[in-house]
Design a protein that fits this description.
2 strands, two-stranded antiparallel ribbon, disordered N terminus, flat, 14 helices, mainly alpha
Length: about 325
Amino acid sequence: MSTVTEPARTDPPTKGAKPRLSDRSRAEQRLGWKLAMPAFVVMLLVTAYPILQAVWNSFFAYRLTDPENREFVGLNNYVVSLSDGVFWDAMKATVLITVITVIVELILGFIIALVMHRIVLPRRTLRTVVLIPYSIITVVSGFTWLFMYQTDTGFVNRWTNWIPGVADNYDWFGSFWPSIFVICLSEIWKTTPFMSLLLLAGLAQVDTSMEEAAKVDGASWTQVLFKVILPNMKAAIMVAVLFRTLDAFRIFDNIFIMTGGANGTNSLSGLIYRQTIDRTEIGLGSALSVILFVCVLIIAAVFVRGFKVDLTQGRS
């Protein structure tokens, strides 16, 4: 009498479980770590030592001009920094500049990336021309914008004196909002090409067959943009916005050149420079540097969690 044996049951893989790596994949992974380890160790030493040194100095009342009277004060430097209205003015200016520039650069950068992606004939020439502002040194760019908007050497007032409130002798750097406007304008002009370059790389990853299928189904250009293109560019948008936000949050050059931090336009980086270099307050400046570093970490964590993008796979 024969017996029928049931096929062995295999439990379905657990949802979200990572697939087991093959021996070849594990070997390639180990090789990758071995190749990257020297550079990783060097970068860790180069970046970890200044960070740890800044954290250590932040616990002391320490002036560079009087190194003998170095005194341990614990968290007092942090208390002094966070309770000072100058710090919060710098934080307000930093956040305002960051928000304005990143939003405008994202919109303009995406438009430029679309043009560079769609155009056929002068593609290389167009990409080269677009990247010219980003290739200019920030200090040179800052002085150029300063000369453009100054009352004696600039030409902007003569070109815009038809606008109500703008005369030939209008001082763009005499108050908060005009100064912020010029600073943001200079930042947008210089770094929009960087944003467009990152977004162009994301556009290149969008499958054109998906766009064509959506058009065949009767989708309008707006629907294709918001339902097909942007969702498939989520990783590229996150990387572009994250990199640019971190860079904008550490703004220093343009503010230092144009206003010197006057009229409430000083940034956190400018405040650190003032405490560390001008006043030689190493302890207080180190505490401000640590606060800025923590803010950067928080911004990065919020972006990565907020976009919910798996950067290893390049998709959400």
